[in-house]
Structures are given as structure tokens and as C-alpha cells.
What does this fold into?
Amino acid sequence: MEDTAAQPHHAPESPTRAALARTLYWLRDLLLAVIIAVVVILFLYRPVKVEGTSMMPALKDQERIFINQFVYMFGLKDVQRYDMVVFWYPGDPTKSYIKRVIGMPGDLVEVQQGVVSVNGEVLPENYVPEEYRDRNSMTPQRVPPGQYFVMGDHRSSSNDSRAWGAVPRRYIYGKAVFVYWPLDKLGVLR
It folds into this structure.
């Protein structure tokens, strides 16, 4: 015997109601995407534009890169020698610079005719091509506690710790990690 009980009958959803539901789902997804993007940009990765030639050949003028802001936040990772860091310029904290960490807190940094020594050992600097080296010298400088000695890779075109001293740790807010423009340079920075 067949069950002949009447099935409840649902009226089909009106087209305007269906369109409204789709729009609300779309707005919800868009809002979620915006919130995720804001969190990523504010706390993890930030796009920045390189201005100037002081980090050539690793970074060129007008390249676009991502910096990792999270890596140094909350002391999760220490700043390391050779990191390319973004920091507030000590002479004018409204300006940001990007340079390579050469000297760690307590290190003795010296430059003799363009050759950098740290604690009496010549620093291997394969990232500085011969044509970007200068022949200048700098008397030995001890890096103060909680500060870092930074230099640009294009030594003859860099305004860096040789001129204005070490950078306090609290001014360092990111590490350069990825080039995204121009596309032919797309990739992770080493």
C-alpha cells in the first residue's frame, strides 16, 4: 500500500528573495576577504616600494616587495646578520629605509678601503659586486646594545650606519622577503 499522505508544499522562492540571498552571501564573503587582507597587511606582510639605488643589485629603484612584519614582532625571531631589514630612519622617524644588517649588538665593525670586518674577521660579502664597492674606510665602531649596524649593498651609493650610526632595535619593523614587481624579478629574496 502506498503512502498517500500529502507532502508539505513549499512555495518556490521569489526571484527577488533569491537575488537578495545571493547578494548577502557575496557581501559576507567580500567582508571576510577584506578583514583577512587587513589583518595580513597590518600584522604579517606589507607591500612596500623600494626608493633609491642603495640596495642594488639585490633590490632596484621602484621595485615592489613584501616585507614580513610578523617575523620580528613579539620577539618571535631575532634580527640576524645579513637580513635585509626595513626600519624607521633614526635621523627622521617619519622615513623608512631598507638596508642589510652587518653588525649585531656588541660587534666591533670596521671598514678598511671598502673591506668590512666584524670582530676582526673579514665579512664575506658575495652580494656586493666589485663595481658597487667603494674604497672608503671607517674607524672601528662598537655596536651599542640593542642596536644594529646596517649598510646598503651599493656601497658607493648608500647612506647608512657608516654616516649616522647604528639603528635601535625598536625602529626595525620588517624583513624584506619577496619581490612581486616587476614580474621578471618575482621571487623570494635571499
The chain is about 20% helix and 30% strand. Helices lie at 15-44, 161-164.
